[in-house]
Amino acid sequence: MTRIGFIGLGIMGSPMASHLAKAGHEVVGYTLNTDAYARLEGDGGRAVDSIEAAVKDAEIVITMLPNHPQVEDVVLGEGGVFAHAPKGALLIDFSTIRPESSIAVAEAGAKAGFRVLDAPVSGGQGGAEEGVLSIMVGGDADDFAAVTPVFEAVGKTYIHVGAHGAGQIVKAANQLVVGGTYALVAEAIVLMEALGVDAGKGLDVLAGGLAGSTILERKRKSMVAREFAPGFRIDLHHKDMGIITDAAKQADVSLPTAALTASLIAAGRAQGYGSLDHSALLKVIENLNGRGEK
Ligand code: NAD
Fold it and tell me: Which residues form the 6-phosphogluconate dehydrogenase NADP-binding domain (predicted)?
């Protein structure tokens, strides 16, 4: 079993760290939201009060942080992972960040004697709690092979998709499909309700046909009930749409549906829904149609 330093015990990191501890790994956690420590300790892990204490004996370091400034700060900063982890340790960054930051972290790691994988995940809070995440991994194939027990403990599908940064590009594609699907499900609900049809029953049928998806499986009931506790915050999806539109610009490709979806998610933030789940795109579509809360 492996000694793991785990940094960032939020909505996703907290259940992931618990799965690793329950699988028998020695998990030492550090996070800013210290309320997460009770769960880690209850599941057999240990909480500490600094990055240094979390990583000083680690064979594997895991980060699950909001965005690239936090990852760069935690990993490259003065009191950070590369300053304190034992040389040769392997960093798995599960955060969703821009590909160029993943590449920069991997290059800095190589110079400092560390192996690095970018390994963003999909599956949401439910997937993290159930340990069935999909994980898209960029970096060296041998490094990927060396840490499959970690992926096994938190995920169901994990695939090495290419060099450093490739995991983030696949994750951008994932977020494009997820954001666009939420927008369409929201429009489907508004359409059915506007014509007096029970949207709950309607989505039950859709879920069993070609339109079926994990989003319909996991979220149709909460959307129809207008329950929008996160989950995955609109603020984070807005960050991801920025990664997608930047990547499209860099690749010189036109992605019109991505642009529209990015704009709808930006509208969600502008309307004050940034801290709600991304399924709150339904509120944006309702507001567009004058059907929102008065
Ligand atoms: P979150 O805000 O719930 O968790 C982030 C955690 O990082 C918090 O616990 C915070 O305390 C910690 N943190 C921030 N800065 C820190 C620092 N300097 N030192 C130590 N800890 C620090 O976010 P989340 O929803 O768990 O998302 C984490 C990442 O996973 C994001 O990149 C997100 O895009 C991605 N993601 C989220 C979901 C989801 O459904 N929530 C799904 C897939 C991917």
Answer: 3-162
